[in-house]
Automatic annotation (TrEMBL):
Assigned keywords, A-Z: Cytoplasm, Phosphoprotein, SH2 domain
Domain Ras-associating, chain residue ranges per copy: 146-230
Species of origin: Salmo trutta (Brown trout)
Name by which UniProt lists this protein: Growth factor receptor bound protein 10
PANTHER family assigned: GROWTH FACTOR RECEPTOR-BOUND PROTEIN, GROWTH FACTOR RECEPTOR-BOUND PROTEIN 10
Amino acid sequence: MANKRGNLRKYQSFSNTEDDVDLEALVNDMNSSFESLYSTCSSVQSESVPLLQHNGQVHVHRNHHRSAPMPPHTHTSTSELQHSPTSPKQRLRRSQPMHILAVRRLQEEEQQLRTSSLPAIPNPFPELSGSPVLSPGSLPPCQPSGTYIINIFSEDGMGKVVEIPADMTARDLCQLLVYKSHCVDDNSWALVEHHPLLGLERCLEDHELVVQVQASMTSEGRFLFRKNYAKYEFFRNPLNFFPEHMVAWCQETNGAIPPSQLLQNFLNSSSCPEIQGFLYVKEMGRKSWKKLYVFLRRSGLYFSTKGTSKEPRHLQLLADLEDSNVFTVTTGKKLHSAPTDYEFCIKPNKRTELKELRMLCTEDEQSRTSWMTAFRLFKYGIVLYQNYKIPQQRKTLSHFSTPVRSVSENSLVAMDFSGRIGRVIDNPLEAQSAAMEEGYAWRKRSQRMNILGSPSPLHPCVLSSVIHRTQLWFHGRITREESHRMIHQQGQVDGLFLLRDSQSNPKAFVLTLCHHQKIKHFQILPCEEDGQIFFSLDDGSTKFTDLIQLVEFYQLNRGVLPCKLKHPCTLVAL
C-alpha cells in the first residue's frame, strides 16, 4: 500500500513537472512578445521574476544572460520573492501574468502598425477630435493657402506677373487685370488656358480657382488675357445653338421648345437631355479618324458600335465629364491631320500627353460650338447661369475695393467757358447744341488754316487719315488670315468687327465683320468731293469724314451691312 502511494506521488509530481515546463515555455514566449512591443524598461533587470501562480506555487524564471550572478551562500525563499520590493517600472512590467488572448491582440496591433503606410501622428489638439492620435484617414484635405505668383500674357506675347491669393477666381483676376490695364469692364474679358505645343486652349469658367488650374497645367502652358463675347451667348440666344435634330429628350415634346423651357431642361439636373449626331473621332495612338454616331449625356460621352443604336449594349464610353474639360484645337489639320477645320478636344484634368487626348471633329463651326456648349452645360449646370447673372447683380470687386472706371459712368460733364467763370451745363439740349457749335467752329478753323497753308497737325486731311489709329477696333496692317484668327478667338458672335488696312489698295481700308458665325469683309474706299476726302462703304451713297464717324454710324444703323456693329475686336497690352 505504501509502495502504491509512493508511486502515485511520483506520477503526480512527474505530471506536474511536465505541465510546469510547458507552461513556463509558453509564458516565456508571451514575455518575449510583450518585451518586443513595450521595451521601455529594458534597463531595469531582475535576477528572478515570478511568472505564474499555479496551485499556490510560484515558479521562478532565472535570466542567466541579463542578470548579475548571485553572491554565494545566499538563499531566496518564496515568501521573500513575493514581498521583495520592486520599482514601479518592474511592477508595471512583471508583476501581473499575461493572458494568451491579450498577447495575440498585441501582436495583431503590432502587425497593423508595421503594415500601415503612414505612422501614427500625435494629435496636438486631442480635445477637439477626442482622439490622442491622428490616423491617416482622419487627416484633413490639403487646402491651398497663402499667395501665389501667376504669369499672364497678352496677345502680343508680353507678360505680366501678378501675385494673387489662393482663393481668387478667374472672374476676380480678370477684373484685377482690367483695373490695372485701364480697360473698359464690359464683362467680356476672359482668362484663357493655352497649351501651344498641344495646340489647345479654353476659357476658364468664372468660378474656377486660378491656382488649382495652374497646378494641373504643364510647364509650357500659360494664361492669356483676352476678350470672349461668346462665353454666355447660349443664355442670350439658346435656339441658335441646338437644332431640333441634335437634341433628344426623354419626354415627348410637341413642336418647338420655348427658350425658357430649353434653358430649364438643360440647367435642371433631374432632366435628361441628350445631344446626338455624327462626329469624327480620332483613334487613340493612331492618325486615322472614324465617323461615329456620338451621344453626349450627363454621365459622359458615348458612341454607338452599331449605327445609330441607343441600346446600352451598343454604347461605349468615350470620355467622362466630371474629370475632364473641353478645349478648342487651334492646329487641327497640321498637327492631328483632322478631316475638317472644326476640331475640339476633351482633356483630363491632369498633366497629360498628346496620346491621352480625345480628339473630335465636326462638319461646321455651329456644330462645334453646340457640342462644346453642351459639354459645359452638362458639367457645370446651374453654376454657369449664376456666373452669367453675377455681373448684373454685383458691381463691387471681391479682392480689392477700388472701383473700376468705365466710359459708361457719368464722369464727364459739359462746361461753358464763354463767360468769365466756367459753368456746368445741366440742360441736355443746351449741351448738345454747344457741342454742335463747337464742332462747326473747329471745322471752320481747320478750313481757314488750310487756306493759309499752315503745316499744323490739325490739317483735316492729315487728321482724318490718322485719327482712327488711336481706336481699339483698328489693327493696322494685319493679313486676312490674322483677322480671321482674332475673330475666332474672341467668340464669332454677330456684330463682332475690326478695321484694318487694305492689302490690295494702299489708300483703302477693310471692315471685317462676323455674322451667323461667318466672317465677311467690306472694303472702305476714299472718295473726294470739293477738295475734301471722305470714306464710304456703299460707293459714295453715305460718306463720312473719318473712320470714327463711319463706325459710330453703323453701330446705330445696319445700312448695307448684314447686322449692326456691336462688339469691337480689341487687344490689350498688359
